[in-house]
Amino acid sequence: MPRSTEILEEQVSAFPPRLSQNDALELYRSSEYNDLLYVANERRRKLLPGNTVTYLVDRNINYTNVCTINCHFCSFYRPPGHSETYTQSFIQISDRISELEEIGGTRILMQGGVNPDLGLDWYVELLSNLRERHPSIALDCFSPIEIEGIARVAGISTMDVLSKLADAGLHGLPGGGAEMLVDDVRKGVSPLKGSSENWIQVMREAQILGLVTSATNVIGLGETIAQRVQHLDRIRMLQDETMQSGNRGFTSFISWPVMLENNSLGRGNRGSNQFTLGANAIEYLRHVAISRLYLDNILHIQASWPTMGMDVAQMALFAGADDAGSTMMEENVVSASGTSKTEASIDELRTMITTAGFVPVQRDSEYNMISQIATPSNQ
Ligand code: SF4
C-alpha cells in the first residue's frame, strides 16, 4: 500500500496521529485527490459536527496605500511622494463603517501600507475615535509589518505599540503579511519585509495581549512543497506554544494562491525562486485539505472566494473548510493583482453555502454564532 494511503487511513482512525512534516510532504506528492479531500472533510465533520457553514458580515478598509516595502506581488501600494497615494481621513473611515452597520455587519478588517508619515498618535487617535463612534464593531486592524513600521517610527517595541493600540480599542490583529513563513521565499518576493520570525513574534505578542488573531498563507510564490509544509509547521508550533501558555491562539487559517496581474512578480521578477508561480484550483484544494489535517490545533479553516471564485470556494467546503469567509465590501490589496470579485453580498454568501448543501450561519470575528435566521440583504 502506498505510504500516502497509509497516512490517510491513520487520519480517519478514532485517534489520528499528528502529521509529521514528512507525512504532509507525502500527501502533497502522492495522495489520491479524492481520498485526500474525503479524509479532510471527515476531519472537519468530526471537529465541527452538524451541517453548518459560517460567514462574517464585515468590511475591508484599506486606509492608506502609501508603503515603503515594495513586495513584488503587490499592485496596491504606492511609494511615498507618488501622485496616486492616499490616506483616508477618520471621517471617511467612519462613514465606511456606518455603511457596514446598515447591513448588520460586526467587524472591520483594516489594513494598509507601511506609511512612514503616520505616527503612533495617529493610530491611537483613529482607534479611539472609531471605538467611540462604532462601539459594536470589532476593530480587527493592521498586519504585523504595519505594527513593525509603527514601532520603527515611534522608536518603541512592537509589544508596546500593540499594547497602546489595544488600549485604544484594537480588537484583533488579522493575519495579513504571513504569505510564506520561510525566509528564502520571503527574500525572493518581499526583500524588505520582515523575516518570518518577525511575523511570528508580533502575532505571539498579540496573542499574549488577548487580541483575536488569524493565520494566513499565500501559495504559488515560487516555493517548493517542502516550504509550504514549513509554513504550516511555523503556524502549528506557535499555536501549540500559545495554547500551552493558556492564551487565545489563532481562530482560523486561510490560504489562497498569489494573484499575478499588474505586479512585478507576474511580469517575471521571481527573485531566487525556482518553482512555478501561482496555483490552480486543484492545487489550492489539496492545500486546503492538507492544512485541515496538519493544523490539528486550529479549529476553523476558511475557503477563499475572492481569489478562487465562488465555485472553487464551494468545493473547499468539501476539502476541510468550514467557513465561507466574509462579505469584505471593497477589498483593494489582493484585488489590485487580479481577483475578479472584491466583495460579496450576504445573499451571495448564503446562496453559495446553501447550494453546496450546508446551512449558513452568520458569525462574529471570534467565531461566535450570531444567527441562523435570514439576515437583511445588502443588495
Ligand atoms: S503587500 Fe503590504 S507591505 Fe507589501 S507592498 Fe503591498 S501594502 Fe506594502
Could you write a compact summary of the structure shown?
By secondary structure, the chain is α/β, with parallel strands linked by helices. It has one domain (17-371): TIM Barrel, CATH 3.20.20.70.
Please explain how this structure is put together:
This protein has 379 residues and is an alpha/beta fold. The chain has a single domain, classed as Aldolase class I (TIM Barrel, Alpha-Beta Barrel). 42% of the residues lie in helices and 13% in strands. The chain contains 13 helices and eleven strands. The chain has a four-stranded mixed sheet with strand order 9-1-10-11. Strands 5-6-7-8 form a four-stranded parallel sheet. The chain has a three-stranded parallel sheet with strand order 2-3-4, with helices on one face. It starts with a helix and ends in an 8-residue tail after the last strand.
